[in-house]
Structure to design on (229 residues):
């Protein structure tokens, strides 16, 4: 158990809909990262938040957005869903100190299926 | 542009033998390299890492080798055990405008046969 929790575990929805994925980081970790893993692909970095502020963006679509709340939990919002958005979405957290490498701890993921 | 590549989607090894997983990268700005292990229905878990200033790091049965001139790293598992059967992801870290980014390879599915 990494200490990172994600809800829900599974989500099935239809094209055009909007969903919200939730992540609670490890106690004390200020940084949250979101990744997408499509079928037979590696993990693609989407976005990073540090202590409530966006710090880095990866290959995140404009239809997707995220935020980190004062209690440090994070939500990833996916809208106007398409079939190709079906994937595993992972959240990771780290203490993240500027200029130093920090190991990232991953949650169990949310499997999103768009029908 | 795939900056981190794992060219072998799968690998099958006899129990007790050595497993060697390979990874190539293109970006010379990466400063840390990591291996993550993933079981089905779980998130990736950190296994071992190496700084770009080193060429070898060992932790028990796991050793990571880094060849910077070839932009290649490998993970050696000796001896391989059935519990090592999992998908292994190679990842590389770079600092970008004060933020740390991890770039992952596609993964290699390792199967250890009894």
């Amino acid at each position: 158990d990494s200490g990172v929790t994600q809800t829900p575990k599974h989500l099935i929805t239809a094209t055009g809909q909007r969903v919200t994925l939730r992540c609670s980081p490890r106690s004390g970790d200020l940084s949250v990262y979101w990744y997408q893993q499509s079928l037979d692909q590696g993990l693609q970095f989407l976005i990073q938040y540090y202590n409530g502020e966006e710090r880095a963006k990866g290959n995140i679509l404009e239809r997707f957005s995220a935020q980190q709340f004062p209690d440090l939990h994070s939500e990833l919002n996916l809208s106007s869903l398409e079939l190709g958005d079906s994937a595993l979405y992972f959240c990771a957290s780290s203490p993240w100190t500027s200029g130093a490498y920090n190991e990232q701890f991953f949650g169990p993921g949310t499997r999103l299926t768009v029908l | 542009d795939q900056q981190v590549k794992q060219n072998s989607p799968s690998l099958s090894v006899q129990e007790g033998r050595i497993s060697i997983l390979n990874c190539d990268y293109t970006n010379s700005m990466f400063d840390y390299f990591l291996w993550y292990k993933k079981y089905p229905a779980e998130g990736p878990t950190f296994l071992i890492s190496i700084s770009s200033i080193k060429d070898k790091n060992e932790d028990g049965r796991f050793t990571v080798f880094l060849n910077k001139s070839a932009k290649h790293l490998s993970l050696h598992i000796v001896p391989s055990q059935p519990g090592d059967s999992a998908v292994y992801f190679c990842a590389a870290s770079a600092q970008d405008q004060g933020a740390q980014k991890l770039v992952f390879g596609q993964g290699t599915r390792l199967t250890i046969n009894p």
User: Anything to note?
Assistant: The longest strand of chain B covers residues 86-96.
